[in-house]
Structures are given as C-alpha cells and as structure tokens.
Write a structure and sequence with these properties.
about 220 residues, Glutaredoxin, Glutathione S-transferase Yfyf (Class Pi), Chain A, domain 2, 2 domains, four-stranded mixed sheet, two-stranded antiparallel ribbon
C-alpha cells in the first residue's frame, strides 16, 4: 500500500515522496521497518553508510541535526527524527492495526513496557556495543569498562523480561505492540555483543519464537 497525507492528516492510498533515511543493519531502523510492516505501509528507504559517517554530512545534518538514524522526510520536506516519533506519526495517520494501545489503560501499559525495554535493555545493549567495540571511535571516546557494565545490566534484565512473559503472550497481555517490536530488535542486535537468552529463559524464548514468526520480523 502506497500512502500519503490528505488535508485532514489521514494517510490515503496514492503515490507519495515520503522517504526514510536509515542503515539496514541498525536496530532502530529495523524497529521502524517492522512497525510500518505491521501497519501495511510501503515506504522508500534511503540507505546511509553510518560507518563512513554519511549521516554526518552537511546535507543530512540540515535535515536531522542530531545525525542519528532513522529519520523520516515528508512530502513537503519536513523531517522527523527519533524512532518513536516516526512511529507515532504513522500510528496517528494510519488507522489500521494500532500498535501503541487501543484504550487508555493499554496505551499506558504499552508506554510503560516500551520505556522499560528502551532504558533497561536496548540502551544498555547499545552502550555495550559502542563502548566495547569502538565502532564509532572516530566520533566518540569509548570507555570499555562502561561497555562491560552496560552489558551485564542488559543480561540481568533478561530475567525480568522472562518473568513478565510467564503469564503473558506479549509484553502487554495478548496485545502485540510497539514494545514487542522494540524488544525483538534489541534481542537480535544484542547477539553482536554476545548477549543472549539462556535455556532458563523459557517464557522469553517462547515469546521470541512467536514474534520471530511474524512476517514483519523479516522487514
């Protein structure tokens, strides 16, 4: 489905020039791709070589001052950075398959688990990667000790996730949400720094198998 905005702010099925700038191997970029796949939104993706610093050049910096990827460019040239902000835009403009909650309580629960996964797992994995591998040493000062601490914190949080999924199909009951998207993208990326689920994480492993089987997980 090709989509574009009408005057009322609702996306319709017609050609558009929206595009997302990303790097296909980056976990945050995958979060957006998976979100849009679940919403059945087709999108043009422009690949940036972040290892070479292509996201840092003046053209891309003018569009997205933080230089982080992904970022969305709308038909009128307006740019939206930050993964959650991009997803929020499409949550509000594409009514099909809401992924951020359907009721006030569910929206609060999704936000709660999204933030927990973000702060206590995904961010820790990211810090472990950046500070342990030195991948971005040309633009930051890696602190290996910090990377090791972050990796241990991420590994420990797997126990909490496993406990949450003991009596819950997804992170928020039987409702598949953006929180689940965040978690699977973080778990898959965590393997780069050898952070993995163990055989004792039976509930998390069951969840992982279920979510991995969704077509959007291949986005």
């Amino acid at each position: 489905m090709n989509t574009a905005l009408t005057a009322s702010g609702i996306l319709t099925k017609r050609e558009n020039s929206m595009k997302i700038y990303e790097a296909s191997t980056a976990p945050n970029a995958r979060r957006v791709r998976m979100f849009l796949a679940e919403k059945n939104v087709d999108m043009e993706y422009v690949q940036l070589d972040i290892a070479a610093g292509e996201n840092l050049n003046s053209e891309n910096r003018a569009k997205n001052p933080t230089t982080k990827i992904p970022f969305l460019e709308l038909d009128d040239g307006t740019c939206i950075g930050e993964t959650l902000a991009i997803c929020r835009y499409f949550e509000e403009t594409v009514s099909d398959n809401p992924l951020m909650g359907r009721t006030p309580l569910e929206k609060a629960q999704v936000e709660m688990w999204q933030r927990r996964v973000e702060f206590y797992f995904m961010m820790q994995v990211g810090m472990c990667f950046q500070h342990s591998t030195g991948y971005f040493k040309d633009r930051m000062t890696p602190v290996p000790e910090y990377g090791a601490v972050a990796g241990k914190a991420a590994t420990k949080y797997l126990d909490d996730l496993n406990a949450q999924l003991a009596d819950s199909k997804y992170l928020v009951g039987d409702y598949f949400s953006i929180a689940d998207i965040n978690l699977i993208c973080a778990l898959d990326f965590a393997r780069v720094v050898k952070i993995k689920m163990s055989d004792e994480h039976t509930h998390l492993l069951r969840w992982y198998q279920d979510v991995s089987a969704r077509p959007s997980a291949k986005a």
